[in-house]
Write a structure and sequence with these properties.
The chain is of the alpha+beta class and 457 residues long. The protein has 13 helices and 20 strands.
């Protein structure tokens, strides 16, 4: 289907995607000045009344449930050729499938997503509906003033629970559908969706699809350190025997929420240096002295081949990979330099060899500071040109993940090199601000650190 100019009053901008039954377009409601997604029945199904009925039934279910955890339908209409279309919420942050492909999710972030997906499915179950096609690509993400929202979408296979004994055709996506869904005429109930939730949980936690039946490898074997209760819950949800699964989405979601709230959960995911922070600080001075005895100044810290340690902000909004040798101290709420703070930089995450000397250019301190900014793109607004007694070199960042600028001082008052950067994902308003201090000038290491930054909210 070629790109149309408009659907009614909705001006078409570009195609978002297409599937077997429909194409989804990004459009703009010029009357209300608001972006929307428009789902249009595919041309080859225009005269199939059963497919048209399924398409409209999806719109009815979403409209009737009207939940914050489900994609909302704002309008429905019919094209001149008889094909129906629905006007829906536009999810500007893509899908959970996109997120899983981009990066390894922190445990708390994975459990947050899983809890909110489960809440959406619980709404459907309370409405008397089985989704039948729960998978990461059918869970969308939308930015909002209070943070990222999860929206369960694509109810093309959804059916009433009352009709569960009358399904005549297999429906769902292999790898996520329950064993009973693959049997035409199978007697389904809400536990089919529980199986799919287990499959989604497995992928969120491991980055891999759940194995085929019978599932024998728990996610904790792929990702060591997961709570045993979480392993047990997911393996029960993925049981071929539905009698062994949690009885519905609410029961599954309540258990995920309880596991997430356990006080010992976060320490499982903390790096060893953070779990033993006090002991590490006591040993930091001795370790640094021993290192300097056997290594030169240029190789003791910041060598291009050095190992990197991922660290996360207190809210898990940000992750950055920092050379392990620099992580003597971790500060989750370090104030930004005044010039950066005036431009909107919030207190952020600092991993360093010495937090007390971080802002002093005449002291030796190596590490990485990173935080979010509300939309500043111009590095000139957040750094001082004469910060290190000399003007910095300026260069652009232009990678598939990040756009922005880096200003670098190859020698900052005789105390190593300094880089300041503001980068943003293409098309995203939020900016990540970084400061990187290292023993000598290594722009390749600076680029590696920037490339390793991830924003989750």
């Amino acid at each position: 289907m070629s790109q149309p100019e408009a659907f009614g009053r909705y001006r078409v901008i570009r195609r978002l995607g297409s599937g077997s039954f429909a194409t989804v377009w990004l459009a703009h409601d010029d009357l209300l000045n608001y972006p929307v997604a428009i789902k249009v029945l595919a041309e080859n199904w225009a005269h199939q009344m059963d497919i048209q009925h399924r398409f409209l039934e999806e719109a009815r279910i979403l409209r009737q449930t009207d939940s914050t955890w489900l994609v909302a339908v704002h309008d429905v209409d019919v094209l001149p050729d008889g094909r129906p279309y629905m006007v829906m919420t536009y999810a500007d942050q893509g899908s959970v499938a996109d997120m899983v492909k981009r990066d390894h999710l922190p445990l708390d972030e994975a459990l947050r997503l899983l809890t909110e997906i489960g809440q959406g499915i619980t709404v459907l179950h309370n409405h008397g509906t089985i989704h039948r096609d729960i998978k990461p690509s059918n869970v969308l993400l939308q930015s909002s003033p209070v943070g990222q929202r999860v929206l369960v979408a694509d109810l093309g296979f959804a059916k009433s629970i009352d009709e569960a004994s009358g399904f005549t055709a297999a429906a769902g996506t292999p790898g996520y559908m329950s064993p009973e869904q693959s049997i035409p005429g199978g007697d389904l109930d809400v536990r089919s969706d529980v199986y799919s939730l287990g499959a989604v949980a497995y992928e969120l936690l491991t980055g891999r699809q759940a194995p085929r039946q019978p599932v024998r490898t728990p996610p904790g074997r792929i990702r060591p350190g997961l709570p045993p209760a979480l392993d047990e819950l997911i393996m029960s949800a993925l049981s071929a025997d539905r009698e062994s699964r949690p009885c519905d989405a609410k029961t599954f979601t309540d258990r995920v929420r309880a596991i997430r709230m356990e006080p010992e959960l976060l320490p499982r995911e903390e790096p060893w240096w953070q779990r033993h922070r006090k002991q590490w600080r006591r040993l930091a001075t001795l370790g640094a002295a021993l290192a300097m005895m056997v290594l030169t100044a240029t190789s003791a810290y910041g060598a291009p081949s050095m190992s990197l340690t991922p660290i996360h902000s207190a809210t898990h909004e940000l992750r950055v990979d920092v050379p392990t040798e620099w992580v003597s101290e971790l500060h989750l709420d370090m104030a930004a330099r005044p010039t950066a703070a005036e431009a909107g930089a919030e207190p952020g995450l600092l991993a360093t060899t010495d937090g007390d000397d971080w802002h002093a250019t005449d002291k030796t301190s190596y590490g990485v500071f990173t935080t979010l900014m509300p939309g500043v793109r111009d590095l000139g607004r957040v750094t001082e040109p004469d910060r290190c007694g000399q003007p910095p070199a300026e260069r652009r960042v232009d990678t598939p993940r990040w756009e922005g600028k880096v200003w670098e001082w190859s020698d900052c008052s005789g105390n190593g090199a300094l880089a300041a950067a503001t980068v943003h994902e293409p098309g995203e308003p939020r900016t990540v601000y970084l400061e990187i201090r290292q023993p000598d000038y290594r722009p390749g290491l600076t680029d590696t650190i920037i490339d390793g930054v991830r924003v989750y909210a």
